[in-house]
Specification:
337 residues; alpha/beta; Diaminopimelate Epimerase, Chain A, domain 1; 2 domains; seven-stranded mixed beta sheet; six-stranded mixed beta sheet; 36% helix
Length: 337
Amino acid sequence: MANGLLGSAPMAIDLVVRPGPAVTRQQFLTTHPPFAIALDGYVFGEPWLELTPDGPYRNFNHHEAVDRSCTSATCEQARRAVLLGLYELFRTDGARHATLYVNDCDQDVCLATWVLMNPDRATEPLVRVISQIVDLLDMSAGVFPMPHERDLLGQVRWVFEPYARARPQLLAMPAAGLEQVIVDVHHRLDAFVLGRAEVLPLVGEFTALGGGDGWVLAQVTHQSARERMVASGVRAAVELFGRAGERYLYTLWRRSEYVVNFPLKDLLAALNVVEGFAPVDREGWGGAETVGGSPRGRGSSLSPAQVEVIVNRVITEQSRTRPASPRASGAARPASP
């Protein structure tokens, strides 16, 4: 996908979609051309900027090696970068110049690419509004308490509905299919920022398949089903949202890092080991301390029953070593000074 002349300055901004696991920083620097920008997990690890004699490279990410609840989502990182002069650096012969690389088509990817391909609109009020909403929802695995502006949230659901529809089939989708989802969402973003978005009601259901102490294993019919899970009191979950043959697509989430009895990083590490990966592996299960999932582009070979056993084992082991809180152990509360 290419973006030609938009706004007040010429641009040469291309989008490349390559499904599959993340690449390393070194791989990105040595196998991709300068003026490359990696988005939302295309490159494994924390955000960074590197300047080379041939041109700059940028990684926007909020999955690994960050404090998730204190780190902006990729779309908001990108929007702030545009406002702070990204395209003063990513520029050749007077034209803004970048190639965007992604391996997914979720809400964060769609909005980040739209912002980077429409940089002159990054200051518009509705762009700021939707970027901040996606930032909060993505940071919190979609469970951040939002204002009761139901029409606004319904419009946001409508914008990203092409991705929500495609999500269960991601394993079988080639690069062209992922790119088409991004294109469809971009068209809806165009409508939203002009105040012409439609309103999509809350849809989706979940079916509990199992779980354990403080968490639920559930099959979901739509990503918005998570809102129903939170409303019903669920604070941590493993969601089964797609399947292709004997490969499964899972998301693990907890409402925040303060839900300490669902140690997400340890769960991801244990699932990786059982599946034959290193505990932390860019090709395996990955994510941050509040949300993660099965390997990108390939899914997992572990059945829901196997995942349930592994998660409960880790939680039991952690509970034996976790210090009790002062109130739980009966210790006296310190006196006020």
